[in-house]
């Protein structure tokens, strides 16, 4: 039953909960503080003869007469949102057929529309969910306002024109700091134990099943040694495999391949290494490959896909597939490991699939040793006087001689992150970004829908602003985001940056030499003698031979 008409005038007051910036969040005061964004809004206590009732309070609102996807109920929050403060939003929504009948489920979004102080229009996603007309659904998300705004409104949008959008309640509060997860219990975890049953196929296909209507069979002629990455981690004998492999035929979809359920064998928060041999062939083994094929070991966790490792097979040789993954919570239903990827019609072969937990602390130490070997180089600084003779220590006391202080200014290892035009309005973000990265990838600003939101109306202004920022700071740019992460990864990044910068301090020896091993990159050296100080910059490039640098004092 409809209670009111179009939106009432703005009334300032508190909503449910003092920290909710949304006024009249459950419509207890009718349509006060709410308007329609390109449409009408109506207040209801029920619809369809009582079949649709409020989920929380006494009323809900319907956005009607929608002629575009962005139409919906909205509220102005200009005076109540603070810049550089993280908010979390929760909206309870539902669909309704404007002319009766049914409505197909579709995505509903909560969006923050912003007009900046310089007149730019920005649209920031708050949250989204798949919604139908069968039940109320909560969509949740977080939003950070970077810029100083002239106007800001939160609105509900998404469904096609002609579909009514119902809003039961909207809450937008300051986001609470996430509670750290308790330390995982790995006491009974057996590192190196393969959780794949019958990996060597001694019992035929026991434990295996085809994902999709493809055909599995066991054949000989496969590798007899573990892939190199597994050998390195497991330290097993040279020939642990028996040469058997699974041959997958009649594949009609890329996701088809051999699979196993490992739900009860998986420990949350443990890191699992993946290693396998894989091979592709034309259908029936008689057709040549037309193009390189992607082979992927995938992990399905409660129907969510996790990448366990992949390789691009360019011919019909055996390739090593390697990777790692970690499940961050206890699975609710099922965890499945499967091998997939090649085009439909391409045969897939898999041998010696290993999925085993690894000791992360030991693994990190091992990787640090590899890093020191691969990403560092020995450096010899030869300090000489004006006559070319070595500037050695005075007498036998090296501490009273030539002092050398080396500081690495930048690392040549390419390290990048995602940046968006909205981030540029946050000076703290820009300062952190430009100081800690040497590569940048744009979030959306070079995607077609961004540069040409309406046919024939092309604008690269946001991308130009980002490119100018990166160029001014000497950063390489890729046009589209390839990776994004959350807070814990950021903390790890800062730790790695400290580890990947080399600093050295000491005195030259009797031969006037100061030796150290440093990461590749740019350096600044300062040499102090009785006559004064001499500074110089130099670059440590990748090479196996030591870098010898002469410094005259």
Automatic annotation (TrEMBL):
Repeat as UniProt keyword: yes
Keywords: Carbohydrate metabolism, Hydrolase, Polysaccharide degradation, Repeat
Coiled coil: none
GO molecular function term, any single one: endo-1,4-beta-xylanase activity
Annotated InterPro entries: CenC_carb-bd, Galactose-bd-like_sf, GH, GH10, GH10_dom
GO biological process, one term: polysaccharide catabolic process
One Pfam family linked to the record: CBM_4_9
Limits of the GH10 domain: 398-553
Family membership: Belongs to the glycosyl hydrolase 10 (cellulase F) family.
Name recorded for this polypeptide: GH10 domain-containing protein
Biological source species: Urochloa decumbens
Source organism phylogeny: Eukaryota, Viridiplantae, Streptophyta, Embryophyta, Tracheophyta
């Amino acid at each position: 039953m409809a209670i009111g008409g179009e939106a009432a005038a703005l009334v300032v007051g508190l909503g449910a909960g003092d920290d909710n910036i949304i006024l009249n969040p459950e419509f207890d005061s009718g349509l006060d503080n709410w308007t329609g964004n390109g449409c009408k809004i109506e207040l209801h206590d029920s619809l369809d003869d009582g079949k649709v009732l409020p989920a929380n309070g006494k009323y809900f609102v319907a956005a009607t007469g929608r002629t575009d996807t962005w139409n919906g109920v909205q509220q102005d929050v200009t005076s109540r949102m603070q810049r550089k403060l993280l908010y979390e939003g929760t909206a309870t929504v539902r669909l309704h057929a404007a002319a009766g009948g049914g409505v197909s489920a579709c995505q509903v979004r909560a969006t923050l529309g912003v007009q900046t102080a310089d007149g730019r229009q920005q649209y920031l996603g708050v949250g989204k969910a798949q919604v139908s007309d069968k039940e109320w659904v909560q969509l949740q998300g977080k939003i950070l306002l970077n810029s100083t705004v002239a106007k800001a409104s939160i609105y509900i949008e998404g469904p096609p024109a002609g579909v009514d959008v119902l809003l039961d309640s909207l809450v937008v509060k300051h986001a609470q700091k996430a509670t750290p997860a308790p330390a995982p219990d790995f006491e009974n975890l057996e590192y190196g134990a393969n959780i794949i049953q019958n990996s060597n196929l001694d019992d035929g296909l026991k434990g295996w099943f085809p994902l999709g209507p493809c055909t599995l069979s066991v054949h000989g002629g496969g590798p007899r040694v573990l892939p190199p990455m597994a050998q390195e981690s497991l330290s097993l004998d040279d020939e642990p495999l028996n040469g058997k492999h699974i041959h997958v035929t009649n594949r009609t979809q890329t996701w088809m391949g051999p699979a196993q359920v490992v739900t009860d064998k998986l420990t949350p928060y443990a890191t699992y290494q993946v290693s396998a041999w894989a091979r592709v062939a034309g259908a029936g083994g008689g057709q040549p490959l037309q193009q390189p094929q992607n082979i992927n070991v995938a992990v399905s966790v409660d129907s969510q896909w996790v990448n366990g490792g992949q390789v691009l097979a360019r011919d019909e040789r055996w390739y090593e597939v390697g990777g790692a993954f970690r499940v961050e919570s206890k699975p609710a239903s099922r965890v499945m490991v499967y091998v997939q990827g090649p085009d439909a019609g391409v045969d897939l072969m898999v041998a010696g699939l290993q999925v085993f937990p690894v000791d992360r602390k030991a693994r990190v130490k091992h990787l640090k040793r590899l890093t020191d070997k691969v990403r560092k180089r020995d450096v010899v600084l030869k300090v000489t006087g004006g006559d070319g003779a070595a500037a050695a220590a005075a007498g036998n006391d090296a501490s009273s001689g030539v002092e050398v202080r080396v500081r690495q200014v930048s690392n040549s290892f390419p390290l990048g992150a995602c940046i968006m035009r909205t981030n540029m309005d946050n000076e703290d973000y820009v300062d952190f970004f430009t100081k800690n990265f040497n590569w940048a990838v744009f979030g959306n600003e070079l995607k077609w829908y961004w540069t040409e939101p309406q046919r024939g109306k092309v604008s690269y202004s946001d991308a130009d602003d980002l490119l100018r920022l990166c160029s001014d700071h000497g950063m390489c740019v890729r046009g589209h985001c390839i990776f994004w992460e959350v807070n814990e990864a950021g903390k790890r990044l800062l730790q790695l940056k400290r580890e990947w910068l080399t600093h050295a301090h000491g005195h030259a020896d009797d031969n006037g030499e100061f030796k150290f091993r440093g990461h590749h990159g740019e350096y600044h050296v300062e040499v102090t003698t009785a006559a004064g100080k001499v500074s110089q910059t130099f670059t440590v490039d990748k090479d196996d031979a030591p870098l010898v640098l002469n410094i005259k004092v």
